[in-house]
Design brief:
Layout lengths: L46 H14 L20 H7 L2 H4 L11 H18 L3 E3 L5 H18 L7 E5 L5 H8 L3 E5 L9 H10 L4 E7 L11 H10 L3 E6 L11 H4 L3 E4 L19 E3 L11 E4 L4 E4 L16 H14 L3 H19 L15 E4 L1 H5 L4 H10 L6 E2 L8 E4 L7 H20 L1 H5 L12 H6 L10
Parallel strand pairs: 2-3, 2-4, 4-5, 5-6
Antiparallel strand pairs: 1-7, 6-7, 8-9, 10-12, 11-12
Helix pairs in contact: 2-10, 4-10, 5-6, 11-14
The structure holds pyridoxal-5'-phosphate.
The site of pyridoxal-5'-phosphate (PLP) has 14 residues, from helix 5.
């Protein structure tokens, strides 16, 4: 069991000497009313022991560099280290966001060129880079939807259609903008049920502001009727919102504009290879078609032929959604990834789709596959068969950890019982996919032959089962001195 750094503390032990005369700290410069009355409780530990402590913690962490991480809908691909190097260049990191445009030409040029690249990839007419995550992009997009209809004085449009397979952030974002959410059913092929969609448009004539869709959807299936859907929505005066979390499947092959979408958010921290997990940082740029350009948050980055500048005068802007230019470091990493890939972005998508289909075909005899179609970059199997033998999906996920595989996304999407959503990404090779397949098959056999091993799993991790509900509801990260 790892000890807390406080428990490793030894009286009188020091790492860095803050009283060293080379360090410019003078307590007499500070107004006495701000000085502490008692000593700060800090661990006393040497530099070497501190290094060992943090190395030990990092060794316990699981990341893409430690092993296969098929977390569906999260696109946990390898993030080339050159991106990190570029984002840490001093000329980026030392630039103050309030610096005048003339002094920040390099960074503004990078953002402008990233906007241009994302315009080309999505087919949209304008992009804002401000959003700091997918959900934040959704919020921005739905604020644009709201303002668009307000500007037309079309105040009856207060409803948003969202398929039952959608990610929970979709209804949450639309709800935060005051929209009423109406659920659209999926059909037996795992796609939007066209008849139900038409019924909903008929029953709510002139009241639907938008339909939010993910394509490929969260079952990893391409919505074949997307052109028909966009035709129906547009003919009813509604807008189409594209949740771009799954863009990794279609880059360079098709784009949301071709499918008829008006607003798009992207998850740079998924598709465009910037590390995520553990809470960020991310970036959720939003793209819009020509008629929605004036609603984007400000500033957008523009170029007048001579210099790059931050443009504030958009007629109907929704305002600002994030301080300064958003998570700039993430933008640098994404731009570096796009330049690295160049025209082979399309190959990344094709390989991601191939990898997902390869695993799906190998596993479908051992697990239920509720939607047995060619998938895109991910697919969803069900642990229903294993459940009848007394082993739940959660336990299968835990058992995978014993073999140094990160579990897939479990229990999502909600329309599949005992769901396991597997997204291998394009950066894994066949050997690694085969290793994962072998272990999944081994676990399926264990369910029959030795279920206890699975029910007690994981056996090889630093901690085994944790009380997840308690940990989420009563998170307590404080150290309390027990002396
Ligand atoms: C389909 C889908 N939409 C939206 C989101 C939200 O993105 P973020 O986690 O960056 O807020 C996710 C996140 O996993 C997702 O999978």
């Amino acid at each position: 069991m790892t000890k807390l750094i406080f428990e490793k503390s030894e009286k009188g032990m020091t790492g860095v000497n803050l009283t060293d005369k080379n360090i410019d700290i003078n307590a007499t410069d500070i107004n006495p009313k701000f000085l502490r009355k008692s000593d700060l409780i800090l661990p006393e530990i040497s530099e070497l022991e501190a290094m060992r402590h943090f190395k030990e913690l990092s060794d316990k962490n699981f990341c893409v560099e430690s092993g296969f991480y098929p977390l569906g809908s999260c696109t946990m691909k390898y993030n080339p280290k050159v991106n990190e190097h570029l984002a840490s260049l001093e000329k980026f990191t030392e630039l103050h966001p309030l610096q005048a445009d003339e002094d920040a030409q390099g960074s503004l040029e990078l953002m402008f060129k990233l906007q241009e690249a994302l315009k080309e990839i999505t087919g949209m007419s304008a992009i804002t880079l401000q959003g700091s995550a997918g959900a934040h992009g959704e919020l921005c997009g739905m604020m644009i939807v709201k303002k668009y209809f307000e500007s037309k004085n079309d105040i009856k449009r207060k409803k948003v259609l969202i398929p039952d397979s959608a990610h929970g952030t979709n209804p949450a974002s639309a709800g935060m903008c005051g929209f009423e959410i109406i659920k659209v059913n999926s059909n037996e092929k795992g796609q939007v049920d066209l008849d139900h969609l038409k019924e909903l448009f008929d029953a709510n004539k002139d009241e639907i502001a938008a339909i939010m869709m993910t394509n490929p959807n969260t079952l990893g299936l391409f919505e074949e009727n997307i052109l028909e859907i966009s035709k129906i929505a547009h003919s009813q005066g509604s807008l189409l919102y594209y949740d771009g979390a799954n863009l990794n499947a279609i880059m360079g092959i098709t784009n949301p504009k071709v499918m008829g979408f008006d607003i798009v958010h992207l998850n740079l921290h998924k598709t465009f290879s910037t590390p995520h997990g553990g809470g960020g940082p991310g970036a959720g740029p939003v793209g819009v078609v020509e008629k929605l350009k004036e609603f984007l948050p400000v500033p957008v980055i523009d170029f007048d032929g001579k210099k790059y500048y931050r443009k504030y005068n958009l007629k109907n802007t929704i305002g600002k959604i994030k301080e300064f230019q958003g998570n700039f470091g993430v933008l640098v990493k994404a731009y570096s990834y796009i330049l690295l890939k160049g025209n082979s972005l399309k190959e990344a998508s094709m390989d991601a789709v191939l990898n997902a289909n390869y695993i799906k075909e190998k596993l479908k005899d051992y697990y239920d596959l509720p939607y047995d179609y060619t998938c895109m970059h991910e697919f969803v199997i069900s642990g229903d068969r294993q459940k009848t033998d007394g082993v739940h999906t959660l336990e299968i996920a835990k058992r995978l950890m014993d073999f140094k595989f990160h579990p897939p996304t479990v229990y999502f999407p909600l329309i599949v019982s005992e769901a396991m959503m597997i997204e291998p990404t394009e950066t894994e090779n066949k050997k690694r996919l085969d290793d994962f397949i072998d272990i999944m098959i081994k676990i399926a056999k264990e369910v029959k032959e030795n279920p206890k091993t699975i029910l007690d799993a994981p056996h090889n991790t630093p901690v085994s089962r944790v009380d997840e509900t308690n940990a989420a509801r009563h998170l307590d990260l404080r150290y309390q001195n027990k002396e």
